[in-house]
Amino acid sequence: MGTADKEPRPPVRMCVRCEVVTGSPVVVAVVHQNSGPGFVVYACQACAAHYPPQPDVLTVRRPSGKAGE
After folding, report:
1. With contact defined as beta carbons under 8 Å apart, do 41 and 33 qualify?
2. Whole-angstrom Cα distance, residue 32 to residue 30?
3. What is the CA radius of gyration of the chain?
4. In Å, how far are 1, 53, 55, 67 from 28, measured between CA atoms?
């Protein structure tokens, strides 16, 4: 019995807003950290509409110049 015989498991995550376990999670945010791995924030289909699109932190840059200006 190999892995080709098994059916893939559906994604099951808890909604960050209503705290209900959902079989159709939507990624609403990705949290990056300076040390260690970051994490992904999920919501159910109904709650996902309450979260604005998140900018990609890897493409956002601070204006050139000294820090604090």
Report:
1. no
2. 6
3. 18
4. 37, 7, 11, 30
Report which residue type is found at 15.
Answer: C
- pTM assigned to the model: 0.67
Report the alpha-carbon distance of residue 8 to residue 6 in Å, rounded: 6
pLDDT digits (tens, 9 = 90+) for 8-41: 888 899 999 999 999 999 999 988 888 889 999 9
- Least Cα distance to 42 among 56, 24, 57 occurs for 24
Task: Decide: 67 and 40 in contact? Cβ < 8 Å.
Answer: no
Cβ(6)–Cβ(13) under 8 Å? no
Residue 5, SS3 per DSSP: helix
